[in-house]
Amino acid sequence: MSHTSDSPRDSPAGRTTRAPGAAVAAPPTSAGRPAGEPRPGTRQAQKQQTRRALLDAGLRLLEHQNLSSLGLRELTREVGVSPAAFYRHFPDMDGLGVALVGEALGSLHEVVRAVLADGADGSAPDALIDRTVAITAAYVDAHRPHVRFIARERHGGVRTVREAIAAELGRFTDEVAAGLAVQPASDGWTAAELHVLAGLHVDHMVATAAELLEAPLGDAAERDRIMRAARLRMRIISVGRLHWLDPD
């Protein structure tokens, strides 16, 4: 009497049988993942690439328009992703703008601290002024799209972006005030007076960056004029600082 076995090796050609329509699990890889499933690190890298592409496309499209006029579909079409993909990275277009603010101004904090450290070490005022203006010009040269975005949106129509810019510039002002406070020339100054002085320096830096941005590319004479005027303004501020506590 014959006996029929249900074991896989007894099926035709040694293959496992299954009911019609039954799902077949993908064979595991050597790392225990189903075949075809992306590695966690790869998935994260792809997500970061998409986020980067959205930010870069935003900067390109904002070269000649305000954030308030940039449409979601225009942006996602530029990147080649769906609008749904955008929302996996940003809550809305305002969120994209806030992220661009962080990129544009966040990296400047270390530069500002380095300049202030030079002042605390007793660097000559004129040398410090020259370095500050040179750093501002170099930053504009290296980050023109970001500087253009800040210059346009600082007083633009998107409130959350205006507030983000104001908050970053406020942080700069606080840092500059703290740096000025440890310099010998600040003896006798109140905290409020130093904060006003720091605000003058920050406003001057932003104004100089905007002027350099508007200068025609390749116009060395205009660039030199802007930088000379910037250094002169800073020297006038410096002279006023030296004599602020003089008797009336």
From TrEMBL:
Matching InterPro entries: Homeodomain-like_sf, HTH_TetR, HTH_transcr_repressor_FabR
DNA-binding is among the record's keywords: yes
Domain HTH tetR-type: 48-108
One Pfam family, short name: TetR_N
Keyword flag Transferase: no
Sorted UniProt keywords: DNA-binding
Residue ranges of the region described as Disordered: 1-51
Protein name per Swiss-Prot or TrEMBL: Putative TetR family transcriptional regulator
